[in-house]
């Protein structure tokens, strides 16, 4: 009897393990096949002189239009091309695209991380898609003095076999202008459960897009209005400009391994609709910090909860890199919007141009009316004791 139950436990453990490994075979988190463009084409990497550089075949990718493998040190019009990472990347010419077929799990949300740099001063934009989903990523704003930035975009898999497509929407007079892309990775996202004492989903911001261990620039999260399909589960980026998802390996983070750095003042807003009971007292608390990236102070955020708004300046205790802030509000409906943006438009003190700003982490919304209920119960108990007293005395 005991033996058979032991055996069935083993069987179910094996089934679980098998299911686990079977599911990881589908789409592993991390770099997609040749996502860093460092695998040499069959005839070797093209020579460094432009025009001869047209790729004859980029391993693991399909191309359409002028797609060029570019190398570190390669020059164009006297300027050295920016290669985000490693020795090689691809440049997409006018209306050109690269694509790769991926195996994913239908119904799940995935986030794609990629690095992009623009080559000319013109307005450059990239269409990232997993048809039918797509988003145009505007590369005009330089968030970083390095000239490139990692971005994340998310999609919900409508089937098990999908195609990830990057297309240059530009139509420049100079066909050698066009965005450079590198380091393409994918991550299957999960939505963390809402904790019992906190109405905010993913309030600790620990679940988010893939981040490369050796990329020190964080990941930009561009506009995303669909809270169901977000690279930062639970959260929306409401603004035209992006916010930066940062990691504790390269930045100062108040809690855990990840947080959000707000950029571009009012132009970078994150928000969430949290579940509330109408007409109840709630408190929003969060950690407000600095990212340790030499950001020019002062730092401050505007925090919103329902009809309350408050600006909070970063004034930590002597040795701390963050402080806890709170905002009391009364819910008006069964959903309440909470949101944050940076009050100032900050840049780094060392290069005077990379965008930076205050850090938000560990966001909680909790029912703070419980204090009154406590008094209510205490009142009941006292009242009962009084009647008992009266009864026995009488
Ligand atoms: C390449 O793109 C053009 C439009 O830009 C399209 O008409 C053509 O079908 C594409 N070719 C392939 C092989 O996808
Ligand atoms: C981006 O590409 C997708 C399919 O690849 C297409 O459906 C969508 O219309 C494109 N968006 C723009 C703005 O061109
Ligand atoms: C990270 O660094 C390792 C070794 O230093 C290198 O092989 C790899 O290509 C790098 N990857 C990224 C995405 O930076
Ligand atoms: C701040 O750090 C210094 C040196 O590490 C220490 O001497 C001091 O007591 C700390 N102050 C507080 C308030 O923790
Ligand atoms: C919020 O309310 C609590 C008591 O419920 C109080 O201790 C706290 O100071 C209030 N916070 C603000 C910012 O008013």
Mean pLDDT: 87
Give the domain tally: 2
Order of helices and strands: HEEEEEEEEEEEEEEEEEEEEEEEEEEH
Query: What is the helix fraction of residues, given as a range?
Result: 10-25%
- What's the CATH architecture name of the largest domain? Sandwich
What is the CATH fold-level name of the largest domain?
Jelly Rolls
Using the CA coordinates, give the radius of gyration. 26 Å
What small molecules does the structure contain? 2-acetamido-2-deoxy-beta-D-glucopyranose
What separation lies between the terminal Cα atoms? 66 Å
Shape by Cα distribution: globular
Strand count, sense and barrel status of the largest sheet are:
6 strands, antiparallel
Structural class designation: mainly beta
List segments where confidence is low: pLDDT < 50 over at least 5 consecutive residues.
371-383
Oligomer: single chain
Explained architecture:
The protein is mostly beta strands. It folds into two domains: 30-188, Galactose-binding domain-like (Jelly Rolls, Sandwich), CATH 2.60.120.260; 193-202 and 214-394, Galactose-binding domain-like (Jelly Rolls), CATH 2.60.120.260. 12% of the residues lie in helices and 37% in strands. It is built from two helices and 26 strands. The strands form six sheets. Strands 1, 3, 6, 8, 11 and 13 form a six-stranded antiparallel β-sheet that branches. The termini are far apart. The model is unreliable at 371-383 (pLDDT under 50). Bound molecules: 2-acetamido-2-deoxy-beta-D-glucopyranose (NAG) (5 copies). One 2-acetamido-2-deoxy-beta-D-glucopyranose binds next to strand 9, strand 10 and strand 12.
